[in-house]
Amino acid sequence: MTGTYNEILVLFSLLVAILASYTALDMAGRVATTQGTAARWWLAGGAFAMGLGVWSMHFVGMLAFDLPIPLGYDLTLTFCSMLAAVGSSAFALWLVSRPQLPHRRLLLGAVLMGSGIALMHYIGMAALQMQPGIDYHPGWFTLSIAIAVAASGAALWIAFHLRSGGRRKYLLRALAAVVMGFAIVGMHYTGMAAAQFPTDSWCGAARDGGVPTQWLAILVVVATVAIMGIALIVSVLDRQMHSRTHHLAHSLARANEELLQAALHDPLTRLPNRILLQDRIEQAIEKARRKHEQFAVMFLDLDGFKGINDAYGHQAGDTLLVEVATRVRGLLRGQDTLSRLGGDEFVLVVAATDPEDAAMVAQRIIDAIGTTALHVHGAELQVTASMGIALYPSDGDSERELMAHADAAMYHTKDNGRNGYTFFAPSMNISAHQQLKLLNELRRAVERDELVLYYQPKFSAPHYDMVGAEALLRWRHPELGLLAPGAFIPAAERSGLILPIGDWVLDEACRQMRAWREEGHGVTNVAINLSPLQFSSPNLVAIVADALRRHDVPASSLTLEITETTAMRDADASLGILDELTRMGVKISIDDFGTGYSSLLYLKRLPASELKIDRAFVRELESNAEDAAIVSSIIALGKTLNLRVVAEGVETLGQRQQLRRLGCDLYQGYLMGEPMEADALFAAQAARQRA
């Protein structure tokens, strides 16, 4: 008996096979990329969808086959064939979800899965219950088994290697599904070709109440399309959810990284902050203790940074800090740490085998910062750095000790000229505690009226009459007695206290001039020193004007002294400030002239009325020909620029006589009058005149 095939159903069986193959590949990816309970649910659902797809392809192929007798299918055997397909599919999905698929496991899996599919096919054929039984051609039968095993092996290999996602993998899955579909269909129709039906055969299932082919066709088509469609839709939705979850997880991880970065790094320079620095130092201590090594903690502070901030603004200051951080970071090794604590304070943790190694690193950093100008917002800024170095374990065996000792050494560098480095010494620790105590007491000194102004008279040639005085700050410390400016002014400048102290000095000097005038004393002028921070303050002009107005003092009776270095730091900005002050009538004196760096072009433009010769040149005037030549040049320059020349530190008659011979205008020094309180100034002058 010879059968025929319905071409439409044959084509439909191929489409079902391809769809089942794609479902299998997609399910393999789902099972492989999930874990726990979700993986088990995907395995069960995938096995059912894939198995039903392969099984339905088989029965669509069976329905495409037509014999000249009524056909039916035994329900029990039909269900058993479906179970064989589902079981084979479950095994296949489990196998390809394993982390590895060696060749032996692949071969064994191909045999088992191929046998399961062949079993499904021939159980399905047995569901016809043909009488007499179906004869199978041995060659075609063997070939169908071989095709089932080969197709299963190829399907397992393809599914294993295409189980991960990706846009390109989806296209490959579609192509692989076509290949697998043709292989499954080939196995089925090869098995059908092996079947031989005797001429007088009849279908026992059709006579014994089996499922009619029409109803089976409808059931298979609807169930197959529905289940595989639902499986694919659920897979797509799950993939989208997985993609969104992955995106959210990635965004959350990135947000956590940014939060961690913000918590442990300085937002401006992106350097480690104090929290991360503490951890790095503790790690370095643990490593050095374990390996018996050394390392250095270096405290770095920029000299005069606050003045730059005040003069150019915080944005320029921030740009400067970033540039400094970049320069320093470029000098360090991979195992070293550069951290910013805040402001202009940086800390370095440097691997150093000995003090010489640490000194070499520190000197490179100082040279990199101080030797090359920094260009910030069109301005050329020259800054220097002061550094303090503490070594582990000789200078401390804890993070707190090393930080404190490096900080103390840095302030020692500040107090000794800046622009350099200093190694910690035990004596500095005592000094640091004293400085901190002194600074706290200085904050309360203004409120407690402990500050006082002393006045040193100035005399003019040729008769050496007193024509003015310079106000000099002193501190009546309740425990240490009368302190000179050198004992507390550096700390005041570092902490910023110099600004309120400077305002107090200006106000007190104006008040005293008003008091002298009311008492009938003729003091024509009082000079006040301005610190670099005061001079760069944007409120300087307003503060001066307010003090003069409040005490009703003529502006011409006030002289403000600024150092040559301060005036030249930013000559154009200095000109603007000095022009405003001189328009008010205030006189300007260039202090410590000859010790800094002056441009004669800018000096000519400065609206100054005085030049003060630094006491360092006056001290050796009688014995040092070079100092005498310098003093002579300064006096000649002053005459050329129509400036009065003041010599400070005049302590001997010989110094005064030589200054007089060179043409000096005003004299100030212990020879003629030492600093004294306001009440004693005119009494001393009267006694001098009587003498």
Notes on the structure:
The protein has 691 residues and is an alpha/beta fold. Helix content is 61%, strand content 16%. The chain has 25 helices and 25 strands. The strands form seven sheets. The protein has an eight-stranded mixed beta barrel, surrounded by four helices. It has a five-stranded mixed sheet with strand order 10-11-9-14-15, sandwiched between helices. It has a two-stranded antiparallel sheet with strand order 1-2. A hairpin with a 3-residue loop joins strand 17 and strand 18 (481-483). Helix 2 packs across helix 6 (167-194). The longest helix has 52 residues, at 213-264. The chain is rod-shaped and about 160 Å long. It starts with a strand and ends with a helix. The mean pLDDT is 79.
Number of strands: 25
Query: Helical percent range?
Result: 55-70%
Helix-strand makeup class: alpha/beta
User: If you average the pLDDT, what whole number results?
Assistant: 79
Gyration radius, in Å: 49 Å
The largest sheet, given as strand count, sense and whether it forms a barrel, is: 8 strands, mixed, barrel
3D shape:
rod-shaped
| Amount of beta strand | 15-25%
If strands are numbered along the chain, what order do they take across the biggest sheet? 16-17-19-20-21-22-23-24
Low-pLDDT runs of 5+ residues are none
- Could you tell me how far the N terminus lies from the C terminus, measured between alpha carbons in angstroms? 156 Å
In DSSP terms (H or I, runs of 4 or more residues), the helix count works out at: 25
Task: Please describe the topology of this protein.
Blueprint lengths: L3 E2 L1 H26 L3 H29 E2 L5 E2 L1 H22 L6 H24 L3 E2 L3 E2 L1 H24 L5 H28 E2 L5 E2 H4 L3 E2 H52 L9 H18 L3 E9 L1 H8 L1 H16 L7 E6 L2 E7 L3 H16 L3 E3 L2 E3 L2 E9 L6 H17 L4 E4 L2 H20 L5 E10 L4 E13 L3 E3 L5 H7 L2 H22 L6 E4 L2 H5 L3 H11 L7 E6 H6 L1 H14 L2 E7 L6 H6 L4 E4 L1 H5 L5 H16 L3 E5 L4 H10 L3 E3 L7 E2 H13 L1
Parallel strand pairs: 14-15, 17-19, 19-20, 20-21, 21-22, 22-23, 23-24
Antiparallel strand pairs: 1-2, 3-8, 4-7, 5-6, 9-11, 9-14, 10-11, 12-13, 16-17, 16-24, 16-25, 17-18
